[in-house]
């Protein structure tokens, strides 16, 4: 198994940092491995703590009386130099419950209100996003959206368009547009759903 022998923090930014790891591979060879992380210091890296606390949260929500539209954001992302379709999402503040972060971020990005569906941990627990380059983990929150889309609550650094997409529009988006992977897989689920798209979410059974 690969071993980490030393970690050097290369940057000290608020939202994202770069760390250089000195590692030794199973064949004994040594090399460097660079990791991008939400961690503020090397001691906070998941490779050190081995805790999977959520860095962020993504929200899969449906809209309308028939629950036949999914709430998406079309957001400009600098790494792409282009727009990409995503679920509303954001960072979880220290000490903040993931569901509270979801309600807050959802309203900030869309102007809509989110009614959270309580769900079993297996549906919501943080999952790693791109493990080859980052230790970032994001949880998923599910819910029903209401209200009128409004972008006046977004930050000046954000460029977000709220999209209420039915199945026809979702098919077009998946065929023609840039889509974040985590969002794309759930949109494929949305396309195949019958009735309430969120009907698969279950509460944990009491024992």
Note down, in words, how this protein is organized:
- The chain has 207 residues and is an alpha+beta fold.
- The protein folds into 2 domains: 3-49, no CATH class; 56-192, Nucleoside Triphosphate Pyrophosphohydrolase (Alpha-Beta Complex).
- It is 21% helix and 34% strand.
- It contains 5 helices and 11 strands.
- Strands 4, 5, 6, 7, 8, 9, 10 and 11 form an 8-stranded mixed β-sheet that branches.
- A hairpin with a 5-residue loop joins strand 2 and strand 3.
- The protein is elongated and about 60 Å long.
- The termini are far apart.
- The model has no long low-confidence stretch (mean pLDDT 94).
Brief summary:
The protein has helices at 46-49, 98-110, 121-124, 167-176, 181-192; strands spanning 3-9, 17-24, 30-37, 56-63, 69-77, 82-86, 89-91, 113-116, 127-128, 137-146, 160-165. The protein has 207 residues and is an alpha+beta fold. Strands 4, 5, 6, 7, 8, 9, 10 and 11 form an eight-stranded mixed β-sheet that branches. It has a three-stranded antiparallel β-sheet with strand order 1-2-3, with no helix packed on it.
């Amino acid at each position: 198994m690969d071993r980490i022998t030393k970690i050097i923090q290369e940057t000290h930014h608020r939202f994202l940092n770069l760390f250089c790891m000195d590692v030794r591979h199973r064949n004994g060879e040594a090399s460097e491995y660079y990791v991008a992380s939400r961690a503020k210091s090397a001691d906070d890296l998941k490779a050190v703590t081995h805790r999977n606390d959520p860095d962020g949260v993504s929200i899969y929500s449906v809209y309308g009386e028939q629950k036949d539209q999914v709430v998406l954001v079309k957001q400009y992302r600098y790494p792409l130099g282009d727009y990409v379709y995503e679920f509303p999402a954001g960072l979880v503040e220290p000490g903040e419950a993931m569901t509270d972060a979801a309600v807050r971020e959802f309203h900030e990005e869309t102007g809509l209100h989110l009614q959270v569906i309580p769900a079993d941990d297996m549906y919501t627990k943080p999952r790693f996003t791109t493990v080859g380059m980052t230790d970032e983990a994001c949880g998923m929150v599910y819910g029903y959206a209401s209200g009128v889309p409004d972008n006046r609550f977004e930050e000046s650094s954000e460029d977000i368009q709220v999209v209420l997409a039915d199945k026809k529009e979702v098919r077009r988006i998946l065929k023609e547009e840039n889509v974040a992977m985590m969002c794309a897989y759930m949109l494929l689920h949305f396309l195949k759903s019958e009735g309430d798209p969120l009907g698969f979410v279950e509460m944990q059974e009491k024992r």
